[in-house]
């Protein structure tokens, strides 16, 4: 609820920033600006550049807020905190950068019609989104020239490290290397924030699938962004950030859902643009696309999540055979993947998934009950209990 409130509250400054890019609407709503732009025509380009710069600055502030909110939600692991932050940032950027930019830029005069007749939204998206192609091109250029440069030069870590150096206690060596109110020295790089980079990739991909058939020129700017981002982030991961123990798999189920949603949004937008033409054939073909994407999503969601959460049938049968002598009062979690039911800390245990010990004549699994006179060997046997090679 708090995240939703923050996203909705952020609409006000976003709409104000985007309004600067539509100089024509500003002149209509504020006639006094017309004489100002006639006297200083170069200010028209300045106003048009304020919008993408402002959007980039506001996007840079969002990760800090969303990370704080995710940490306060009580997730049991850092990976889940990052996954929650990633989802919030995707919702934030999709709503603020995409929808609010479109509404504030070209639907402000037709918003009352949308509220009265919601069925007109598809046609209005088809007419309004293409008009924002120039603004989104400028936004991608700003992301390349500002955000990636800031990441490459590590401007924010240097600023935060300078604040840490000024105010953090540094009497002992431990204090000089310990975090202070979330701040660390600039020399502490940490691991790469995948959840902070993926929302930018997703937004660029959303622009590509939306404008590829409407304004193909935007695809070249998106391609340039992907190339530069690949070089910058690859260099940072290899030479700056610390190795991470996480595989970043927590992002991909949600990312798949977001990608299908982006495809549906682009298809609805394309349908709205095609519906402006009196041609039943293209309209019918465009109408079928969202349904095909929806069927694909339901098919994927019916296969892979169930396979990831439950064991294969062969492993279940083997478990039943090994547990034949056990009395189970509750079988609700009997066939859940072991990694999903393990307690903290998770320790590898393959004893139940492996075949019987008698099937491996060269494998010995000491239970530590035999006394051989060597305490080190006994401790080693105990530590290796449950592993069958």
UniProtKB/TrEMBL annotation:
Region annotation (Disordered) maps to: 355-389
Q: Where is the composition biased (Polar residues)?
A: 355-367
Q: Which InterPro entries match?
A: Csc1-like (IPR045122), CSC1/OSCA1-like_7TM (IPR003864)
Q: Where are the transmembrane segments?
A: 50-69, 89-108, 120-140, 201-228, 255-276, 282-300
> Which segments constitute the CSC1/OSCA1-like 7TM region domain?
2-273
Query: Which Pfam families does the annotation name?
Result: RSN1_7TM
Q: Which GO terms describe its molecular function?
A: calcium-activated cation channel activity
Keywords of this entry: Membrane, Transmembrane, Transmembrane helix
**Skewed-composition ranges (Basic and acidic residues):** 373-389
Protein origin, superkingdom = Eukaryota
GO CC term (a single one)? plasma membrane
This protein is called CSC1/OSCA1-like 7TM region domain-containing protein
Q: Which species expresses this protein natively? A: Aphanomyces astaci (Crayfish plague agent)
The organism's lineage? Eukaryota, Sar, Stramenopiles, Oomycota, Saprolegniomycetes
């Amino acid at each position: 609820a708090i995240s939703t409130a923050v996203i909705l509250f952020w609409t006000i400054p976003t709409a104000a920033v985007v309004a600067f890019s539509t100089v024509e609407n500003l002149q209509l709503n504020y006639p006094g600006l017309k004489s100002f732009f006639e006297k200083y025509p170069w200010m028209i380009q300045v106003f048009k550049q304020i919008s993408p710069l402002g959007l980039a600055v506001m996007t840079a502030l969002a990760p800090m807020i969303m990370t704080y909110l995710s940490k306060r939600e009580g997730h049991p692991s850092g990976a889940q905190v990052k996954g929650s932050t990633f989802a919030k940032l995707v919702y934030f950027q999709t709503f603020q950068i995409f929808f609010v930019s479109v509404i504030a830029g070209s639907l402000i005069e037709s918003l009352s019609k949308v509220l009265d007749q919601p069925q007109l939204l598809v046609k209005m998206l088809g007419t309004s989104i293409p008009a924002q192609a120039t603004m989104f091109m400028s936004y991608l250029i700003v992301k390349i020239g500002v955000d990636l440069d800031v990441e490459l030069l590590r401007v924010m870590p240097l600023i935060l490290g300078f604040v840490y150096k000024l105010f953090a206690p540094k009497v002992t060596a431990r204090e000089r290397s310990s975090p202070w109110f979330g701040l660390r020295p600039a020399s502490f790089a940490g691991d790469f924030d995948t959840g902070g980079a993926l929302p930018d990739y997703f937004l660029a991909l959303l622009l590509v699938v939306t404008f590829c058939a409407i304004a193909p020129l935007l695809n070249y700017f998106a391609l340039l962004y992907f190339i530069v981002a690949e070089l910058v982030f690859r260099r940072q991961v290899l030479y700056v950030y610390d190795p991470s123990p996480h595989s970043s798999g927590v992002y991909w189920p949600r990312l798949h859902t977001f990608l299908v949603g982006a495809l549906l949004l682009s298809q609805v937008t394309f349908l709205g643009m095609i519906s402006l033409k009196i041609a039943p054939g293209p309209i019918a073909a465009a109408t079928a696309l969202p349904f095909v994407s929806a069927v694909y999503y339901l098919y994927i969601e019916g296969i892979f999540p169930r396979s990831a959460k439950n064991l294969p049938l062969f492993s279940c049968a083997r478990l039943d055979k090994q547990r034949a002598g056990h009395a189970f009062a509750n079988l609700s979690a009997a066939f859940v993947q072991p990694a999903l039911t393990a307690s903290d800390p998770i320790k590898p245990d393959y004893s139940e998934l492996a075949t019987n010990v008698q099937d491996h004549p060269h494998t010995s699994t000491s239970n530590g009950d035999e006394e051989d006179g060597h305490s080190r060997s006994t401790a080693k046997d105990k530590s290796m209990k449950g592993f069958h090679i």
